[in-house]
Design goal:
Blueprint: H1 7-12, E1 15-21, H2 28-37, H3 44-48, H4 50-54, H5 63-67, H6 71-76, H7 80-96, E2 99-106, H8 118-135, E3 139-147, H9 152-162, E4 170-176, H10 188-197, E5 200-205, H11 211-219, E6 225-228, H12 236-244, E7 248-251, H13 253-258, H14 270-276, E8 280-282, H15 294-305, H16 309-322, H17 327-337
Parallel strand pairs: 1-2, 2-3, 3-4, 4-5, 5-6, 6-7, 7-8
Helix pairs in contact: 7-8, 9-10, 11-12, 16-17
Length: 339
């Protein structure tokens, strides 16, 4: 019988993460430093309890409660220097656990509270990422999130602001935030524009609402990938659409459990996706909010599906095929696993 991969195996293996939110992945000690440096009006009790404030409860009532853990991070992410710092640190943390490629996402519009323009915010994030790339052997890109609970005009502003950075650090656009049924219809024009500009598109769908949202994201919004897509399993039509079009699902096991997207890890549809050969990547979603790492998430999936090294290679290769990067970067990543 082939060896089932465990935590220590994954620490050594090269890993790829495609679904990671900046504001959900901040170091607690750095947040405290920034609170003091920026003179942010926060009680000493909150500073003492910063770890619990930055982490969502393991037993959240819903996605909405999970998202409340982002309130504090956004307070410290309102300056160019802080944005540079935190983007660098997320890439650094990823590198330290042998993540060789990271796509980090954030919503520029959420960082404008103290007067920064979205272009300044995007530029600062790129600087932070490039500083990490210069220091460490890690590749990656930035995904700009448009918020579903904001207007389509706000989404278009984000897309317009990021246009000049395409291919210079920015690789894609996303729709994130609370998920309502039929949200796609609100953003048809915005995503059409993004596609015309050359953005790749990934959409949060099928997490807190139905499989129909996955279908709409692919058919109406031209999604290249789907964030989560857990509820894809609930519709044979949507399941076949995803499979036949080889649309990769960005799976985040711990987060899905916390947000009640799945009842238990043992009932996570990724088990069926794995057996049926659906393309999916393994991700943290939010390193701090979910108190996890890419290594932990790979270990969770390995235990659920009894993953051996050949199984992991297949997931890795599928993930490489779905990254929003050049063929040169893809080849470099393939070489990393074949060393």
């Amino acid at each position: 019988m082939e060896k089932i991969l465990g935590y220590n195996d994954f620490l050594e293996l090269p890993k790829i993460e495609l679904h990671c939110h900046l504001d959900g992945s901040l170091r607690a000690d750095s947040v405290v430093e920034e609170i003091r440096t920026q003179n942010i009006d926060i009680s000493e009790d909150d500073i003492v309890n910063i770890n619990s404030i930055l982490k969502a409860p393991q037993d959240c009532t819903s996605l909405v409660e999970y998202l409340s853990a982002f309130d504090m991070p956004l307070k410290v992410l309102q300056s160019k220097r802080a944005i540079r710092r935190f983007v660098f640190e997320v890439f650094e943390d990823a590198y330290k656990e042998n993540v060789v490629y990271l796509e980090l996402r954030f919503a520029p519009i959420l960082h404008t509270q103290k007067g920064l323009s979205m272009k300044e915010i995007i530029s600062s994030a790129i600087e932070g990422m490039n500083n990490a790339k210069d220091r460490y052997d890690i590749e990656g890109g930035l995904i700009l999130c448009c918020m579903k609970n904001f207007s389509e005009e706000d989404a278009i502003s984000t897309i317009e602001s990021g246009k000049e950075f395409l291919g210079k650090g920015v690789c894609a656009v996303d729709l994130a935030g609370p998920e309502d049924e039929a949200f796609a219809y609100k953003f048809i024009n915005a995503m059409k524009l993004a596609k015309e500009y050359g953005y790749k598109i990934t959409i949060h769908a099928g997490e807190a609402a139905s499989a129909q949202n996955v279908k709409d994201s692919i058919k109406l919004l031209h999604a290249d990938r789907i964030g989560h897509g857990v509820r894809t399993i609930e519709s044979e039509e949507v399941y076949n659409l995803v499979k036949e079009n080889n649309v990769l699902l960005e799976i985040c096991p711990t987060s899905n459990l916390q947000t009640k997207t799945v009842e238990s890890l043992e009932k996570h549809p990724l088990i069926k996706y794995f057996k049926d050969g659906l393309a999916f990547s393994i991700n943290t979603d939010n390193r701090t909010v979910s108190d996890t790492t890419e290594t932990k998430e790979c270990s969770i999936v390995s235990k659920l599906v009894c993953m051996n090294v050949d199984d992991y290679k297949k997931i890795y290769y599928n993930t490489v095929g779905a990254i929003f990067a050049s063929d040169k970067v893809k080849q470099k990543l393939l070489n990393r696993l074949n060393k």
